[in-house]
Amino acid sequence: MKVGFIGLGSMGSAMAGNLVAAGHAVTVWNRSEAAAEPLVSLGAKLAKTPDRAVLGEAVCSMLANDQAVRDVFLDGGLLDAMDPGTVHLNHATISVALARELAEAHAAHGIDYVAAPVFGRPDAAAAAKLNIVAAGRPGALEKVRPLLEAMGAQTWPMGDDPVRASVVKIAGNFMLASAIEAMAEASTLTRAYGVEAADFLQVMTSTLFAAPAYQGYGKLIAEQRYSPAGFAMPLGLKDVGLALVAGEGRRVPLPFAGVLRENFLDALAHGGESLDWSALALVAARRAGLDGGDAA
Amino acid sequence: MKVGFIGLGSMGSAMAGNLVAAGHAVTVWNRSEAAAEPLVSLGAKLAKTPDRAVLGEAVCSMLANDQAVRDVFLDGGLLDAMDPGTVHLNHATISVALARELAEAHAAHGIDYVAAPVFGRPDAAAAAKLNIVAAGRPGALEKVRPLLEAMGAQTWPMGDDPVRASVVKIAGNFMLASAIEAMAEASTLTRAYGVEAADFLQVMTSTLFAAPAYQGYGKLIAEQRYSPAGFAMPLGLKDVGLALVAGEGRRVPLPFAGVLRENFLDALAHGGESLDWSALALVAARRAGLDGGDAA
Amino acid sequence: MKVGFIGLGSMGSAMAGNLVAAGHAVTVWNRSEAAAEPLVSLGAKLAKTPDRAVLGEAVCSMLANDQAVRDVFLDGGLLDAMDPGTVHLNHATISVALARELAEAHAAHGIDYVAAPVFGRPDAAAAAKLNIVAAGRPGALEKVRPLLEAMGAQTWPMGDDPVRASVVKIAGNFMLASAIEAMAEASTLTRAYGVEAADFLQVMTSTLFAAPAYQGYGKLIAEQRYSPAGFAMPLGLKDVGLALVAGEGRRVPLPFAGVLRENFLDALAHGGESLDWSALALVAARRAGLDGGDAA
Amino acid sequence: MKVGFIGLGSMGSAMAGNLVAAGHAVTVWNRSEAAAEPLVSLGAKLAKTPDRAVLGEAVCSMLANDQAVRDVFLDGGLLDAMDPGTVHLNHATISVALARELAEAHAAHGIDYVAAPVFGRPDAAAAAKLNIVAAGRPGALEKVRPLLEAMGAQTWPMGDDPVRASVVKIAGNFMLASAIEAMAEASTLTRAYGVEAADFLQVMTSTLFAAPAYQGYGKLIAEQRYSPAGFAMPLGLKDVGLALVAGEGRRVPLPFAGVLRENFLDALAHGGESLDWSALALVAARRAGLDGGDAA
Fold first, then answer.
1. Phi/psi at B153 (5° precision)
2. B182 touches chain A (CB under 8 A)
3. What's the pLDDT tens digit per position in B240-256?
4. Which of B96, B128, B160 represents a domain boundary (last residue)?
């Protein structure tokens, strides 16, 4: 399939690479061109401007946040450059408000908007093992199924309304942050009584919590290895902010999200800018006066 | 081995049954005698008074809470009835303060105190699939190893100090309650945007959260099936209270535990007395004004 | 002094009226013209468009929120219509981000921007008893002193940077909301033990808390008289949101503000849209299962 | 009137002194005798044992906490030493559970139990300016009215049930702690934007919050003068604990109290043991990374 790919960070590059590998004709664009080079060497075509990347049957995008999506697709006028009937697969984690706005703007241009946020880190993206939550017109989803299959292990359909996929992604990331905070507080408690975080988390993540989320972040907390960040603290704050704003839009109190917000701010106020979000464990330890409660 | 077993609720009965099945000579005692009958029919011996149940090489106990443990072992004078050298395996979830007090009282009587709280519900107890967290003198643990192996899938040693096993159990239950609350809030958020809890939790518990804790409680929340309770709301409040008190003892702030406490109280104030603790999801839904936010 | 006044809600009308009464030549503008009539009958001049209201030595504005201020002064191009040297007194409660943006935009036009948010309700505005927090260039403040004196009981200077006055107003409103919540929780607790809110709050607001904030809102809570709203629930949510966003901008955790946010949402999810923000007491009562915990 | 006084800390000594000054025949007892000397020099009689201090028509007690009250009056058997018809005025801040237990134990001995906790610091006690919240049998209150008038500025009757006075005191202290935390967070926010706590709190405590609670603690926060403690951090934790436990007893969620509890623990974990409870402001500042966020 002739497909464009916009946004070549660590996630986008890996996903676009899998499209190329699956034999699709991929045209890529990224704000800084250097990121496109490895893909070009694999066979992708480079677009000098974004409007050159949206001329196929489908366009995938994986941009950093609301602002970047808005800049490129709404303010940048990219929708005008796309043919009616094109399917836009937006893989970014964005606010429910922007999801709604994008759905309406695409509809006004006769373009199919499919929200398709992903669960998985860059290594999962590279291995085509992402879990993709997708919502949009069934015919559009059917059309891009080969793309989804090339990038992910499984696609989880969430119905017609793209907002539904966005809220699932937001709620899922909130569950991840909550899992980190629960391990942070619980292991600080055991440490205060002489049980190392590693010993405690070993029990929990081998038994009741034997799942990737707990095993992955539990290992980082046990080893106090917060750098380099797989998912940096400011992104954690951004994502819990998306949950809070989504909750506000429908009047859903989210007290755990409120606690997370305070703790991300505490982390950022203590040098946590470039640490992995699992360094919430440093906040818990510092508040309890334990060693290891400060960013190195 | 000649062993006593005190406390025959649904957990204790199943555990004692496995000791009998493994060929140990088990003498049982329970406040209400009726609970002992099935075990007697399997070959256990019935003690009319607790002091008759503590005459073997080891004594296991699985009592409901601090008060019950205190009544039987401290105020009831049972330690006086035990021979020095006996090993007492306490499987109950108790406070760190009582764990400390018990350790000292046993030591004063020359009795080995091993804290051995368990993770697992009655069905896991019946299947001898408990995870047992054990702390006490290494020689004592070695001596009761056949008992632990008869009751559990795995024993997780936590060192000499019994308090360490108790705090691990407390911290683990706090993680369970946090997982429930995170699913409660997150699925309330998705419901407010049209995604059923079942659809959302299906994605999460099949992927990043594919672990027993999330799959078990996620299913209850998805089906709004909170009755009969596997672990009732007042027990949830009690256990998060143990975490808060343990935190207070070492000056460990636990903001998630604080939120849990408020929400357990809210549940209890709205008819949740006999519901499973996963009915925290009703509190989240009620606060957001969603249907299904009230106990039937 | 020749002065314009933009925004004639209940606060703005009262303030502009006092300027007229003090002998200033006031030209008024409001989106809906009807609100201007009483002032015109007192001697104010009516501007058909906002640019006609900004031709004096000073312009006061009292608009509802960030969006209204942005629409009129930034997007509406009003700054272009103002003479360099004009002083703009902005009385609205706005975000720190917009305060910063306004300060810069005014500076670029050579216009003096003075942030002058007020504490006080419409009755205090009518009686010229407002407390005005003012920040801007000292020369500008000096110039508009007669206006400030005509509208307020006292002006509290906060230095050169207009953002400083805005943050004081935001922090002050957060303290008001916290006072309401503290009374809501505390009186729910006493009610649960048989002491009516009125009896409890009578003691507190006659002694340690004998201050306008507590006496005013305490009376509303004691009498459960939340309608008509003096300051409606959605405005409370908006203002605590300004505090949270300001905190986020400087990485200041505000756990009380987080609790307030959840409770405002809970109130709004239960029919509190048109109630006074002191109806946070209904949320506390409802969560505890007490009568009077629902909006009528 | 012939009256005993038990418990001569800074509060009790001042209160007993006013009874002596009012011409009552006061017999005093304190665990450490030295504290009684100044009162003896004023004319009080010294009791060598507590049972010698309870032989009058009334007994006042001002002990530190639940444990001290329990030790002296319940476990110490003092009720047996009192004549039926004696009135016991308990001025201590105690739990609702102990208040209930004391009421029942006194009734069983035919002794009148009047809960009479006080609002006010030692200087107010010395000046006989306490606010006394009193609950008990009306005839008993009438009988001790001369004592209450000698010690306080005003007595606030709360009905027959002594528990009611205790819960009012607990709820009142919770409101004080909430006021401190609100000032702590709000002034941290303004500081982060360049407005000193002193400047901000000056506005607030001169206007909407012009009340003793805010002016007193606001001054301490503005001056960062947390030592010597008027009311030490561990007492703050104890009192918010009384509110939480009272709430738990009637299933009243108290989210502000939960936040306070975490922050008291944070303060204690950072060297705040001997600081005034208004040093909650240090916790807020430290979490935000501001100077002055550490105990000296």
1. -80, -35
2. yes
3. 999 999 999 999 999 99
4. B160
Q: Which residues of A touch B189 (CB under 8 A)?
A: 167, 170-171, 174, 243, 246-247, 250, 252, 254
Range of the domain at A69: 2-160
Residue C279, CA distances (Å) to B265, C221, C240, D240, D255 in order:
21, 7, 15, 24, 16
Query: Is the overall model pTM greater than 0.95, yes or no?
Result: yes
What was the pLDDT predicted at B295? 43
Could you tell me if A171 and A156 lie in one domain?
no
pLDDT at D296 over 80: no
CA distance linking residue B268 with residue B283, whole number of Å: 10
Condensed to tens digits (0 to 9), the pLDDT of residues B134-193 reads 999 999 999 999 999 999 999 999 999 999 999 999 999 999 999 999 999 999 999 999
Measure the CA–CA gap between D246 and D244, rounded to whole angstroms. 5
What value does the mean pLDDT of chain A take?
96
pLDDT at position B296 is: 37
Q: Are residues A6 and A145 in the same domain?
A: yes
pLDDT exceeds cutoff 80 at C82: yes
- What is the DSSP code (8-state) at residue A276? B
B47 contacts B18 by C-beta, under 8 angstroms:
no
Q: Give me the helices (H) in chain A, please.
A: 10-21, 37-42, 66-69, 78-81, 96-108, 122-126, 138-143, 145-151, 162-192, 197-206, 212-223, 233-250, 255-268, 280-287
Q: How confident is the model at residue A191 (pLDDT cuts 50, 70, 90)?
A: very high
Residue D127 dihedral angles phi and psi, to the nearest 5°: -85, 5
For C174-195, the pLDDT digits (tens) are: 999 999 999 999 999 999 999 9
Residue A196 confidence (pLDDT): 97
Cis peptide before B253 (omega within 30 of 0): no
- Indicate whether A295 belongs to any domain: no
Mean pLDDT of chain D: 96
- Cα–Cα distances in angstroms (integers) from residue A136 to residues A92, A106, A133, A161, B249, in the given order: 15, 11, 10, 6, 53
pLDDT of residue A274: 97
Tokens, residue C248:
């986020």
Chain D residue with minimum CA distance to C99: D193
Q: CATH number of the domain that C39 lies in?
A: 3.40.50.720
pLDDT digits (tens, 9 = 90+) for A245-282: 999 999 999 999 999 999 999 999 999 999 999 999 99
Q: Which of B265, B287, B290 to mutate to test the interface with C (most CBs of C within 10 A)?
A: B287
**Which 3 state secondary structure label does DSSP give C224?**
coil
* Shared-domain flag, residues A143 and A254: no
- pLDDT at residue D291, rounded to an integer: 76
Tell me: do D6 and D117 sit in the same domain.
Answer: yes
Residues of A in contact with C255 (CB under 8 A): 258-259, 262
Farthest CA pair distance, chain C: 64
Boundary residue ending a domain (D160, D177, D192): D160
Name the residue among D237, D253, D266 with its Cβ closest to that of B265: D253
Question: Is B48 marked active-site?
Answer: no
Residue D161, H or E segment? none
Q: Tell whether the torsion through CA atoms of D171, D174, D179 and D185 is positive or negative.
A: negative
What pLDDT score does B165 carry? 98
Q: Give the angle D104-D107-D108 at the CA atoms, nearest 5°.
A: 85
Q: Is residue A294 part of a domain?
A: no
C245 within some domain: yes
When divided into structural domains, chain C yields a total of 2
Task: Provide the residue type at B187 as one letter.
Answer: S
The domain that holds C209 is classified in CATH as 1.10.1040.10
Complex-level ipTM beyond the 0.90 threshold = yes
D215 and D116 co-located in one domain: no
Q: Do C173 and C143 fall within a single domain?
A: no
Hunting for tokens 């314009």 — which residue is that?
C4
> Does residue C293 lie within any of the structural domains?
no
